């Protein structure tokens, strides 16, 4: 069975727009790292300061960050709400300080925290370069999140699938 394609939902307050088709022919608004692929530019994402890039991290880096994110607190950043965006998924979040505390107690590796810190600064540089900013960005808050679909299936009285 082929995976379903959901598109990408982009918030253009107060409405949500769904972009069905993203392609690699997006014209860049700025600098794209040689190892990365621009998926959507600001025009496609309905705003002047938006873009989507793939292949910014290696698979090993992604795996390490996913492992770290799964150690996050349920509902972190949403007053403990474990499903702030959808009933069909759980939400976990973790900040750099909490990640460092987990490394101190041996629950995650120090390398994962170092990667988190490195990625925070690397992504700020990529954003600054892409938008050709005159000054560097200094992020004051980074929050790594893990949104995962729920595996449980439930059905209503007519036998219809309900995603929770």
Describe the structure.
This protein is α+β, with helices and mostly antiparallel strands. The protein has helices spanning 59-69, 96-104, 110-130; strands spanning 8-12, 15-19, 37-40, 52-54, 73-74, 89-95, 143-149, 153-155, 161-163. Strands 5-6-7 form a three-stranded antiparallel β-sheet. A two-stranded antiparallel sheet has the order 1-2. A two-stranded antiparallel ribbon has the order 3-4. Strand 8 (153-155) and strand 9 (161-163) form a beta hairpin. It is globular, with a radius of gyration of 18 Å.
Strand/helix succession: EEEEHEEHHEEE
Q: Helical element count?
A: 3
Distance between the termini: 21 Å
The helix/strand class is alpha+beta
| Dominant shape | globular
How many domain units?
2
Average pLDDT taken over every residue: 79
Radius of gyration: 18 Å
Major sheet attributes: 3 strands, antiparallel
User: In terms of per-residue confidence, which ranges show pLDDT below 50 for 5 or more consecutive residues?
Assistant: 1-7, 9-16
The proportion of strand residues reads 15-25%
Assign a percent range to the helix content.
25-40%
């Amino acid at each position: 069975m082929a995976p379903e394609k959901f598109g990408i939902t982009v918030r253009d307050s107060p409405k949500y727009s769904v972009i069905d088709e993203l392609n690699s022919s997006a014209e860049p608004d700025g600098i794209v790292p040689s190892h990365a692929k621009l998926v959507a530019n600001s025009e496609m994402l309905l705003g002047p300061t938006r873009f989507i890039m793939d292949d910014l991290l290696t698979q090993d880096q992604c795996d390490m960050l996913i492992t770290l994110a799964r150690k996050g607190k349920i509902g972190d950043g949403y007053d403990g709400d474990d499903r702030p965006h959808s009933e069909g998924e759980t939400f976990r979040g973790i900040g750099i300080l909490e990640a460092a505390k987990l490394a101190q107690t041996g629950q995650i590796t120090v390398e994962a925290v170092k990667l988190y810190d490195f990625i925070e600064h690397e992504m700020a540089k990529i954003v600054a370069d892409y938008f050709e900013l005159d000054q560097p960005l200094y992020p004051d808050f980074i929050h790594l999140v893990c949104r995962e679909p729920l595996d449980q299936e439930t059905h209503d009285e007519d036998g219809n699938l309900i995603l929770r």
